[in-house]
Write a structure and sequence with these properties.
Chain lengths: ~280, ~280
């Protein structure tokens, strides 16, 4: 008799709920997005849905109607009635007995949460500390997949050092990005971040930072830099959907600038807010 | 109101089953093993449990009693009553609202299946075709984690080419291993496979191949080789728990030897069986 065991309970295989056979848990075989709302309106939903569609296509999940995803996000957001909300959603390839090779006719599984999002005012006002971690991720970080164990391990390592984010450093000694954020340095009048490639998530917030900078006027340079260069930057910040721009005032053991959010970062934060509202 | 949406159904957050909040699906935050039985006896369970304990420790899941895992595996196997069984089990860090950083007191989730395992006699008698794929995996493949999307994509690519396994090739142009197997070449009297390192799973079956070879007497060389070298090998095979040794008779477009399982591979297969029975 084929069986499953869930915690310490034995269940005949035919009675195992499909959620236990989700390829999401067997393989991380799915992709996700996080969007947020500002004051009752979901921000940049189309950009996130476009990226979601790209991620789905990249891993060959073809049976998803993005219009339906959009409708579900909107319906869930409206139902929750949370003005400043964080909306997480993922789609996995579906549920089936475990086998690497998949049936293309599997029905994808959809899961979404809408939760309260409190802006972390202290982090934004005072800045955060970050720590570096080797970039152990796979080679297709341009796909926003559920294979996030290296991100978890890096974030936990950072948390153990009292840091709010981990900054990945690749084998060449170059910073790629944060474990769940894009990473920027300001060197004089230069705004620098790693170029988009297979080892970088095409961050939506990164795009809005670049947009916000049009009114600040720093020279944008998409070129990777090293931890030593970061430690010597005039200003540093991370960019992430849930918090937009958060100043970084400590990089490993090095205090950045005078240990307070820098003036260009504050200008970018203000310009970002004007894009949002 | 914080809510979740499962497929198209909205559920208040407090009513969402913990299985939907499994860090296994959010992050692939867990590790797994596959063991098999031969004729009513689980093979090499201790070796697999030792590796499982190492994987758990490597990702910081500390609240697992390996004796309890052993007891569950044995209980499930006994209950199933399948003589030649495949036993899959995983442990994830636990269930919680999604957050990279985790609470060390989370209760891990255990899941196991026992299913019928039919030896693929045709594959063993005739050999299989394999195809190469870039090794997109993370940098800690020595940890048997649930982050298996690159393995899925490679296996699906191979299946599309009529191949039974994908063989990973790293950025340096060297073969690491199969998407779910170890990979060996025989060059004259030399038995060659990649050395164990962070980019290779310490395969239990690989260890038994090396053990079986003591009675065959090939010279073991643990050194990586290239796809071009593999295509010129006298014999090739994969080693995997569920099938032990399976000869490879086609490597990408190249027929290996005379297109039939080679004599040294067949000797290793026979010696492997004597270890098992």
């Amino acid at each position: 008799m084929q069986i499953a065991m869930i915690q310490d309970e034995i269940v005949p295989m035919e009675e195992v709920g499909s959620v236990y056979l989700d390829r999401g848990v067997f393989f991380g075989d799915g992709v996700y997005e996080v969007v947020r709302s500002y004051n009752g309106k979901v921000f940049a939903l189309e950009e996130h849905l476009q990226r979601f569609a790209k991620s789905l296509a990249a891993i060959g999940i073809t049976k998803v109607d993005i219009d339906e995803v959009r409708a579900r996000v909107q319906q869930a957001f409206d139902t929750a009635g949370i003005s400043n909300a964080k909306i997480y959603f993922h789609i996995t390839r579906g549920s089936a007995p475990r086998n690497h090779v998949y049936d293309k006719n599997l029905e994808p599984n959809f899961f979404l949460t809408v939760t309260e999002l409190a802006d972390d005012t202290e982090a934004k006002n005072k800045g955060i500390a970050v720590s570096t971690h080797p970039d152990w991720r796979w080679k297709r970080c341009d796909i926003k997949s559920l294979n996030l164990l290296p991100n978890v391990l890096a974030r936990q390592d950072a948390a153990g050092k009292g840091c709010a984010e981990a900054i990945f450093v690749d084998d060449a000694g170059l910073i790629t990005e944060g474990a769940s954020s894009a990473f920027f340095g300001i060197f004089g009048q230069r705004l620098q971040t790693a170029p988009l490639a297979n080892n970088i998530l095409p961050s939506i917030t990164r795009g809005f930072v670049i947009e916000a900078n049009k009114n600040v006027g720093l020279e944008l340079v998409e070129k990777s830099f090293t931890p030593a260069q970061a430690a010597d930057a005039d200003e540093l910040f991370i960019a992430v959907t849930t918090q937009d721009i958060v100043p970084v005032v400590k990089f490993d053991d090095k205090i950045i600038g005078d240990g307070k959010p820098g003036s260009s970062t504050k200008q970018l934060m203000a310009e970002f807010q004007s894009l949002v509202l």
